[in-house]
Design goal:
Radius of gyration: 35 Å
Structural class: mainly alpha
Strand content: 5-15%
Number of strands: 11
Distance between the termini: 64 Å
Shape: elongated
Largest sheet: 8 strands, mixed
Strand order of the largest sheet: 4-3-5-1-6-7-2-8
Amino acid sequence: MEESPLVGLAAEFKKAKERLREEQRQSKENIKLANKRDEVQFKAIHGLLVVFFVWILALHASGIYLFTRGFLLTRLVLEEQSVCNVSPISVTDSLTPPAPIQGKGCWHPKKFDKAVIVVIDALRFDFTVPFAPHNTPEGSGPHQFHDALTVLSEVANAEPNNAILFPFIADPPTTTLQRLQGLTTGTLPTFIDAGSNFAGTAIDEDNLISQLRSQGKKIAFLGDDTWMALFGRHFEANLTHPYDSLNVWDLHTVDNGVNEHIFPLLQPDQSQNWDVLIGHYLGVDHAGHRYGPDHPAMNTKLKQMDQVIRDLIQAVDDDTLLVIMGDHGMDPKGDHGGESQLEVEAALWMYSRKGIFGRSEGLSNTKDPRPVAQIDFVPTLALLLGLPIPFNNLGAPIPEAFLGPTGDDWENLAEVTHITNAQIKRYQKEYATIRKTDVAADSLSTTYWTIGESKYRRLKEKATGSQSLQEWEALYKSLAAYQRENLRVCKDLWARFDVGSMFAGIVVLIGSIAAIAVFARGIRGDKVEIIGVLLQRIATGMSVGVGIAFSSGFVFSIGLSRANTTILGATLGSLVGFGSATFFIRRRLVSILPSSPWGVLAVVFTAGHAILFASNSFVIWEDKVLNYLLATFGVASLINSQRQSNLTQRALGTYHSIVFLVLTRVASLSQLCREEQMPFCKSTFYASATSSVSSPYSLVLLFFMAAALPAIIKSFYMGTKSYEGLAGFWIGFSFRLGLVFNALYWTLDSADNGEWLSMDEKLLKAVKMLVAQLVLALGFIAGHVGFAWVQICLGIEVKQKNEVKPQKASDAAGEKVVTQSGETVALLGYSNLHGSRFLLLVVSWSLCLILVQKPLGGVSIGILLWQILNVLEILDCNDISSSAIGPVVLGILGNSHFFSTGHQATLASIQWESAFIPFSTIVYPWSPMLIALNSVGPQILTAVAVPLIGLWKRDPKSPGMLSSVVVSAATFVIYHAVIATSAAACAGWLRRHLMLHKIFSPRFMLGGVVLLVVDAVVAFVGLGALRWNVPAVAEVFGYLY
C-alpha cells in the first residue's frame, strides 16, 4: 500500500525536530565546554598573577632582611661561664687572688646567705617618692600615683644604713623580657631584641640565675611567666608558681597568686626550702596599660604594693637581703617600650636588717639620689651573695652597697670594683678573640685599665694598714673610670653597622621598585598576555643567580655570609631575568613617567611623603603631612569635577570631593601625640593625655556608626541599583548587627573598667569575649564563606509595554532588553557587577578591623571605609580610574588612618591589649595576628580594597578588567615600597644621628612591616579574591577579562 504523503511529511518533521534537538544539545555542550575551558584558562592566568605578586613579596622580604641584618645588629653572645674557683684576677693580673673560702663566697666574702627579690613591673621612680610640686608640669597638683607607695622612701630616709633607694635606669627597649635579660646577665640589649617580647627563649649566656644554681642554691619563683621561658629549668619545681603575663586586662590574678605563696615561704619553718625567692608582680604595669598611671586603679594597686612591702620587711631575717625593683617605667599613658625618661627610670630599693649600706659625699644623698644603671645590679648582687660575676657582665658594683655603714670603706669598694673590672677585661679579651678585633685598641679604656692596675699594684705592695682612705678612694675612681669608658666602647662596638649588607638590601628594594614600575606603567596593552613570559624569565634568572652566588662564595667574598650571598644572588638574578623579558617585548615598552596632571600629582605625593624621612622633625609630624596631602587631593578633585561637561558627573564628583575633605578633617581630630610633639599637640584618642581609657563619647559614636554606616554603604550600591541579591541582607542586617555587637563589646569593656555594673567580673569578661568572637566569626568566617558562594548583586525588573517610561540618566545603572511582546526587562546593578560583589569582602574585613581597634580607632576605620568609596566615585566621575593617583591616595589614606587609630611610629604606642579582645590568655598564632590587625589595620583595609579601582562601575563585557586590577595593585605596592625604601635609606644614612633609635629606626621598622603585610594582603586577599569574584560574574555573562 502506498504511503500517505502526510505520513512522510510527519516523519520528516520528526527527524528535523530530532536534528534540532540534537543541535541544541550539542550547542549547550559546546557552550559548557567553552565555559569550562575559559574557566580553566582564567584560573591559570589568575594563579600566575598571584605568583608574580608573591615574587614581589619575596623581593621585598629579601631586601628588608638584608638591610636589617646590617642595620639592627645583634650582640655576639659568648657561651663562657664564670666559675667559683677561677678568679678573673688570675687571668688578667700577675697578682695571686685570694682563694675562695668554703661557704664564705667565691671571689669576695659574701654579706648575705639568702635574698628575696621582688620585681614590681613598671614601678616608676616617681611612684616611690613624695609628691613635689616643682617636679610636676606647671605646678599641678598630685596625681593618683603620688603618695600611694610611700614605704620605700620612708624607710630609706629613716634608716639610711638599712635601706637605699635609687632611680634605676633601664637600657631601651623598655620591654619586660629584655629588661630581665639585662637584670640577670649585666649585658646591653640591641634594638632588634624588642620584637621578641611576645615569646622569649631560654637565656644561654651566663647569668645570675644559672650562677645561683651552679652554687647549689635553691630558687623559688612566683609571678610573671616570662621568667619561665628564660630560666624555668633552674627553679625548684615544687616552689614555682608562674602566671600568664600578657593579659593586661587582669590586674589582680598574678599579684594575688604571688601573695598567696610568698608569705608562707617566708615563715621560719619554710626558710630552709629556698635560698633565693623571686616574686614578680604585674598589677602596676597592667593598671598602667589598661587605665594609665593617673587613675584610681593605679592608686589602689600602689597602696596594695605598699602594704606588701611593709609585710615583707617584717618577714625577712638578718641574713636575708630584700630587693624591690621595677624593670622599667611607663609613659604618661601607661605604655612602655621606648626610651623616654619616664619609660627608662624605674626604682631600685635594697633593704637589710644588718645595716650594711653607706653613703659618701659626692656619690649620693637621700634628698637627691643618684641614678643607677640596671646592669650594675648584676655584679652587686653576685658579690653580696658570694657568687661569681656572670661572664658577659658590663655593669659596675653599686658603691653604697660596699662602702659600709660609715660610708668610708673605700678599700672594700675598690676591691670589688677591681674584681668586676678584671671580669670585664676577661670578657673583652674573649670577645676580641672571637670577633678577631681588639675592642679596646687605641681607646681610653686601655689607658684607664693601665692606670688603675698600676695604682692597685702599688697599694697592694704596701704594708697592710699603711694605705690611706684617700689612696683607696683615688684607686676606686680610676677603676670606675675604666668601667665607664669600657661601657662606652662596647656601646659603640654594638652600634657598628654592616654597610655592605645594608647597601645590598637597598639595591634589592630599589630594583623591585623599578621592576614593578615597568610592569605597571611601562608596558603597553594587557598585562595578562605577558605574565607567563615574565615569570619564566624570572625563574630562569633566579636559578642562574643562585648558582653564581653559591659558587662564587668559594672563590671570593663580598662581605656577606654564604646564605645571605645566595639570597642576594637569587633576588638580583630574578630582577635581571625580568629585565631580559622586557627586551623581548620591547615594542610594547613606553615611558614610566606620568603623562597626565593626575599622574604627576601621584608622583609628587609619593616623593613628598618619601623625602620627609630625611628629617626627624618631619617624621615626628608625619600625620599632619599626610592630612595635607589628602586635603590637596580633595581640593584637586573638587576643582576638576567642576570642569566635567556631564551635569550628573559634575554634581557627584563635587559632592564626593567635599565629603572626602570633611572626613579627612574629622579623622584628623583623633590623634595620639608622641613625646616629641609636646606641647604643640593634644591627645584626643583617650579620655586624657595620662589615660589609656577611651572617652564615653567614643562609645556613643560607635552606636551612631552602627546606625549610619550601613546606610551610607547602601547609598553607594543604590547609585548603580546594585543593592540586590545578598547585598541587602549582608549590609543591612549582618554588617549592622556586627557593628552593634562591636559597640556592645566596648560598652561592656568600659563598664568593666569603670565598674559600672554590679555583675560578677568573670561573667562580664566571658560575655565580652563571646561578643567579640561572634563579631570575628561574622566578619571572617561568615563573610569569606558568603563571598565565596554568593551570586552577583543583580536584580531583574520587568515592565509591561504600557508601563515603560522614557529612559532617565539614572537608568544607565541597569541594562535594558525589550522583548518581542513589548516588555522591557531591566538588569539592575549591571553596570557595577564586579565592584558591588567585591565590596562585600571589603565590608567583611572592615567589620573585624573595627572590632580590634579601640573605640575611637573603630570610628576611624569606619571613616576610612567611607573615604575609600568616595575615592572610587571621584575616580569614576573624573574618568581617572586608570591613573596612578587612585592607588597612591589609597596608600596615603591607610597611612593617615594609622595615626588616627591611636598609633605612632614608636614601640610604646603598640596596643598589646588587643591580643585579649576575644581571648582570656595568649593563643598562638591568633594573638600576634590580632596585634598586627590592630597595628596596621588601616593599611590592610586599603590593600584589600585596592582591586576595586579596576572593578568599580566596570562594564562586565569590556575587556582588560583583570589587567586594570593588576595595574592598580602594582601601583599601590609601588607607593608602599617607595616609602619603606626611603625610610630604610634615611635610617641607614643617618645611622649616627642622635635620634636614630628613637625616631628613625622605629619608622624604618614600621615601613618594613607595612610593606610586607601589604604585599601579602594584596597577593592573597585582594587578588586572591578575584578567584571567586570573576567566575561569579562569568557564570551569567561569560568570561571576558
